[in-house]
Design goal:
Elements: H1 2-5, E1 8-14, E2 34-35, E3 39-40, H2 41-50, E4 56-61, H3 66-75, E5 85-90, H4 103-108, H5 112-116, E6 121-126, E7 129-131, H6 135-145, E8 149-157, E9 165-169, E10 175-180, E11 196-207, H7 208-219, H8 228-236, E12 242-246, E13 261-263, H9 267-277, E14 304-306, E15 314-316, E16 319-320, E17 325-327, E18 330-332, E19 335-336, E20 340-342, E21 347-349, E22 352-353, E23 357-359, E24 364-366, E25 368-370, E26 375-376, E27 381-382, H10 386-390, E28 394-395, E29 401-403, E30 408-409
Parallel strand pairs: 1-4, 1-6, 4-5, 8-12, 14-17, 15-18, 16-19, 17-20, 18-21, 19-22, 20-23, 21-24, 22-25, 23-26, 24-27, 25-29, 26-30
Antiparallel strand pairs: 2-3, 6-11, 7-13, 8-11, 9-10, 9-11, 28-29
Amino acid sequence: MEALMAGILAMILAGGEGSRLFPLTQNRSKPAVPFGGNYRLVDFALNNFVNADLMKIYVLTQFKSQSLNIHLRRAWRVSNIRDRFIEAVPAQQRVSKNWYSGTADAIYQNSRFITKNEAEHVCIFGSDHIYKMDVQQMVDYHKEMGGDLTVAAIRVQKEQAFHFGIIEIDEAGHMIGFAEKPSVEDAKTIPGDPDHVLASMGNYIFKADTLVEELEKDAAIEDSTHDFGKDIIPKLFPQGKVFVYDFSKNKIPGEPEHAYWRDVGTIDSYWEAHMDLLNDNQPISLYNKHWPLHTYHPPLPPATFRDQGNSVSHVSKSHLGAGSYINGATIENSILGFRTHLCTNAEIKGCIFLGNAKVGSGARLTNVILDKNVEIAPGMVIGENLEEDRKHFTVSENGIVVIAKGSRVGFD
């Protein structure tokens, strides 16, 4: 098996600015945004490769990458014994004086690593989606079909088509049509299923020689956007050597049968993905010993609960991070990260805390996201009067209130 995997190189695109996740991306890149109490978004892509024993990985960074680099150094240090590595590669302007101008350009500016590692196939994956995938199964399919490119795809509601590259395939699995983020009216639905489209997950496996050749051609085109979805794939699939991998066929022991993949590109989708983790039937397991989710865990004690007088702590359908101190508070349908401190009679419902938060006595928070290092004054009420909240905080389309990193609310 090791010999079969030796020619596989992974390049993970982790330079995303993530402007639609503001203010969570005010001081960090999108892949570095914390998720699920313990993790960062980039951890899901990395675990998909590491658990598949694909251990030659470059993580390409660009925007506000300091927190991401710190996390990679703490959580993903790998000995270079037997040619295994996970290395962060910042944008270095080696090819030109420009920063990355698109996904394809990011790979083009780092294509020397493909030659250096004598790669036969290159996996190019995004780093800001929530899912589990045995990448080795996709590699096996790619090799079996013998194409130049294999694109992972998933079925999504037609109303969401404008967020994705929309794919058409024939019975043999060839890509025969591709439209990058079409309007809902123009999106081609799946034959026999007018309510769904087949969406690209932004995960690609190329034959290395084909990839380098296509990137060089694209780099020479002045008006190209240098993007895989807009430029590379539309030129490549008419040649008949682009195949589509059905993500629903990817099976991992201990995981639910239904394929789960969530794009967390907006505040609302980010909040919804957290709520998915709290469902009675979790669509993705955080407890699967067959597919562990590795990350960095700071040296902290277990979460502690203390009752004070008539104030009794109550926790329902929630996750609490290590180092948390709950002193007679109520927590419902929430995910609270490391070092959460809730004082007497605080009420937390439908909330996500990214870590190191303190909520004062008697405060009530409903459907609120707290970035790190936030302190809420006693008696504050947030999430119940959205018109008032909009005067002070970011409020999403669906009414999720976001409080920026380092805020001290109610102490003026």
